[in-house]
Amino acid sequence: MTRTLEWEGRKIEMRIYFTPRLLMFATDTTLCVDGRRVARKGGFGITETAVGSFRHKGKEIQAELQVRGNRSVFTRIPYVLRFDGSPVSEGRLRLERVPIAAAVWLSLAGLFILLALTI
């Protein structure tokens, strides 16, 4: 689920989700300001930092969304949002598309079991 907050009159949206790349084994972390994506990071870990920038009141703001997850917090990933190095928000983001990823993983496991039984 997208986490939304307001910062100095700007709408900030953050989300982390499984992506179809490589059979749902990768995640994407995105940060949007007023509906425009300003930072994105994708990879195979749930620990990543999306870095970008946007203009606010005539100044370039450096944005950083850091997520740090592990198996014990698999669906609620801790995050810290920083603008120009100062913390703006922290909490937990809900990892999206978990049921879809689980279905893909179970299907692959079933396929491998069937292949193993036929050999």
Observed structural traits:
8-stranded mixed beta sheet; alpha+beta; 119 residues; 8 strands; elongated; Lipocalin
Topology overview:
Layout: E1 3-7, E2 10-19, E3 26-33, E4 36-43, E5 48-56, E6 59-67, E7 76-83, E8 86-96, H1 98-118
Parallel strand pairs: 2-8
Antiparallel strand pairs: 1-2, 2-3, 3-4, 5-6, 6-7, 7-8
Strand and helix order: EEEEEEEEH
Average pLDDT figure: 85
* End-to-end C-alpha gap: 43 Å
Structural domain tally: 1
Q: What overall geometry do the principal axes of the alpha carbons give?
A: elongated
Strand content: over 45%
Low-confidence stretches: none
DSSP helical segment count: 1
Q: Would you write up a description of this structure?
A:
The chain has one helix spanning 98-118, and strands spanning 3-7, 10-19, 26-33, 36-43, 48-56, 59-67, 76-83, 86-96. Strands 1, 2, 3, 4, 5, 6, 7 and 8 form an 8-stranded mixed beta sheet that branches. The protein has one domain: Lipocalin (Beta Barrel), CATH 2.40.128. The relative contact order is 0.18. The chain is elongated. It is α+β, with helices and mostly antiparallel strands. The model has no long low-confidence stretch (mean pLDDT 85). The longest helix has 21 residues, at 98-118. A hairpin with a 2-residue loop joins strand 3 and strand 4. It is built from 1 helix and 8 strands; from the N terminus they run E-E-E-E-E-E-E-E-H. The N and C termini lie far apart (43 Å).
